[in-house]
Amino acid sequence: MSGKDRIEIFPSRMAQTIMKARLKGAQTGRNLLKKKSDALTLRFRQILKKIIETKMLMGEVMREAAFSLAEAKFTAGDFSTTVIQNVNKAQVKVRAKKDNVAGVTLPVFEHYQEGGDSYELTGLARGGEQLAKLKRNYAKAVELLVELASLQVGGRKKRRELLVSYCSEMETSFVTLDEAIKITNRRVNAIEHVIIPRIERTLSYIITELDEREREEFYRLKKIQEKKKVLKEKSEKERELRRAAGGEHEPANLLAEEKDEDLLFE
Amino acid sequence: MPGYSEFYFNVDHGYLEGLVRGFKAGILTSADYVNLAECETLEDLKLHLQTTDYGNFLANETGPLTISTIDDKLKAKLLTEFHYFRNHAFEPLATFLNFITYSYMIDNVILLITGTLHQRPIAELVPKCHPLGSFEQMEAVSIASSPTELFNAILVDTPLVLVQQPWHIPKSPPPHYKIRVSISHLLIMQWKSYLEAFYKFCEKQGGTTAEIMRPILEFEADRRAFIITINSFGTELSKDDREKLYPTCGKLYPEGLHLLANADDYEQVKAVADCYAEYKAVFEGVGSGTGEKTLEDAFFEHEVKLNVLAFNNQFHFGVFYAYVKLKEQECRNIVWIAECISQRHRTKINNYIPIF
Fold first, then answer.
1. Is residue B302 pLDDT above 80, yes or no?
2. Residues 6 or more apart whose Cβ sits within 8 Å of residue A116
């Protein structure tokens, strides 16, 4: 039963007070941690729900976007080379911000547009409408991806990289919020099942020691009283014996009202 | 020889005309398209195509069938047919066929220039060029470092010299979006001068050729004008710039083009189109919802109609142009159906444009 011993401490009243205070502290700590764990779990569930929704939506949006690509190709011919040639700087960028949930910092990605639309004139000769639709669809897809990334990466607070993570690869990364929850729960359980019992055991040990000491004290006193009584009886008996043998008289009583021989005049 | 083409045409061009009509008979009909639309997978599509004129063009394809392989093979078939025509052609049919390739050549040259401006290796760019528009000096385009050099050294040897538009390529690379603007301007300007040169050539041929090609080319020019106008709403293109981009060989020249240049929204464009009978009909069929026909689709349909009409007459070159364009449309249709099948998005699978 290792780990379940009591704390080694000299049992005294002061130790008892200290232990009581520690017990109180441990209990408060446990309650606070439980609250934190509940808050985290609530948040986790919310995020999970949102992830599922977003993923479903993602499937739809990607499908739509791929289809609009086909439409655009039908009307405008092959513009892929034009697009690839004209890539230089990213137009849609992602900013990382921190969000604090019950003490756990989660990164949140926010996308923003920078610079104008550099593919404005690509479909000028033909297919412009389809290209515009295509651009819109893919922009929507990118927005959704960024949202999904921040939801899923919101699990990864331990990793310092804040890369944009994509669904299929980062399925497991969502564990980290989960990890934070597990850690908190572990701490709660540790306090509840290890620390507090230990303190309680210590407390009860102190109390038992103190009680025992009192009993010892009491017993000692009783014994002494008995001894005294025995002694007293013995000396009483001796006196009786001596009185009976004569020769012993009462010692002079200074306060007695008898005549004092030393007084010359009365 | 105006009016007497029946007498002399077959001497030089009779064989090829017969050949092209034979090929035309092999173009997929709407029954074929219905069959293709019923397919569940790309393999079914391949099977159906085997029963048509395409035969076993996909037979040697190992590995999973992708849309791009289908697309490439369809284009390759058209290419072999076209090269056969070109190799057996006499003048002036040879020049006519060359004119057909110029549009692809323009696209290729622009592609190469853009690629060179972005320092891409030439070997990467050449395979991306449209095969119908290839010419020997393609690889040399990247070596030219200035526009005049480009023109004097390279393009002057190519047939593109007939396209007499000064190539305004900026000498020093301006900020990227300006390059894009100037490149797409370049593209449209080249197209404009190409169309006008082609138009002049057909007029010079006279006779039935001119009669047949005139409406087709006029429609092409007007179509470009409409589309440039509509697509330039909301962009930085100014009205004067816009007007410079319109080809002048169409019906809209000059009043219509002027009206279009001043148009500010779709309604005004429609109003301009209403002045011309055929374009009125085209614009009527267009809806603005997502499920309905778009303007581009309506234009495609009209083009297909005109091209089909070309076959009603004999002894002219228009049949070759019409055949190439119809084959291209067919290629696009098949790729569209294949994409719908592979993406399992069957709602719009019937948005192809039937030819016969």
1. yes
2. B177
